[in-house]
Specification:
Blueprint (H helix, E strand, L loop, with lengths): L1 E5 L2 E2 L4 H15 L3 E6 L1 E2 L1 H4 L4 E5 L8 H19 L5 E5 L9 E4 L3 H4 L12 H23 L2 E4 L2 H9 L7 E3 L16 H4 L7 E5 L9 H8 L6 E5 L7 H8 L5 E5 L4 H7 L2 E4 L8 H8 L4 E4 L13 E4 L5 H14 L3 H14 L5 H15 L15
Parallel strand pairs: 1-3, 1-6, 2-4, 3-5, 6-7, 7-8, 8-9, 10-11, 10-13, 11-12, 13-14, 14-15
Amino acid sequence: MKIALVQHRLRRNDGQGRVNLEIVLRALQRGHHVTLLCEWIEPELRDHPGVTWVRIPCPNQYSNLVGGFISSVLANRWLAHHRPEMDVVMANGATTTYPVDVCACHMVHSAWIKSQAHPSRQLGLSNRYQGLYTRFNARRELQAYHAAHNVVAVSQKVKRELVEAGVPSDKIEVIVNGVNLDEFHPGPEERVALGLPVDVPLGLFVGGLKIPLKNPDTILRAMTKAPQIHVAFAGAAEGSPFPALAESLGVADRAHFLGFRRDIPALMRASDFLVFPSRYEAGTLVVLEALASGLPVITAATVGNSEFVTAECGIVQEDPNDVDALAGHMATMSEGLTNTLKRARMSEAACRSVASLTWSNMADRYLDKAESIGSHLQVPPCPIVNSG
């Protein structure tokens, strides 16, 4: 079968790129030929006999908004000429607005713009640009989803937001992103070797520390009300306002800023719980990776995939900004984990909740859908090829 896939970049260290890379690798294992309409792909794919790379530039020197639009126009034009050569066309969001067979949604910009955490709610030229960028993407994404024959949402949260935006529910299937269970799994780790404090209740945060979206500020404020708790923050901290906030709140001795780390699986195995009350998250990998590591999770209902965090393996609070609730949850979690039997049960429940979410299972679900479509659909010419 000949599959065309539209995606800006296929990278292992990028969430959306990783998802699509796994689909491509699995498609090649299943004997399909894949045409990649991408700006950049992993080197291992460039000379693969089952891969044709059609380089679609995304010239971001203008801006992400303009670059993304140009990329989409170029993809539209290629598909308008070559669609009859393909059995199935798969895409992601607004990477193309040409009618495709399967379009995956990794976040819903029309929902993101409504979030209280969106930067456009703050003053400043860059924040105004973010508002324009999100609104533009929201319009083009919805155009793409309505044109697509099938839509895949990466979480139940994303499906709800798509339905609220007007995409028919019966057109949407949820396929949750995968986890590398060989990399993320329970096991002992030495905290000292990882630069972590020993003999203290230790939470772990993994995420961006440049802006408030992931909500490290609420964690730091909650730490003032839970004086026994230490938290390790894994993420690039250069230029971050949060180390200074920790100093001003008097928790700097318990807030451990680790910088950018490549040993996240080991950090998870060495910590007592993950704390991730992000203010908006469509379908995060970090929660799934923590659960696969047997790590109990404290998160918020605003986080996609929080439905995998059950009472047996963690806590989901409704309001990500509720400092008192978060402080109480961290204290309760640390106290409960001193019970060896309870800790073991929570770890087992965490692993069990994501046991089926392997990358190969995820990729197989996409490809099963693609193979069921085959070459039976006749896709009409795109009415907006020249305008993008």
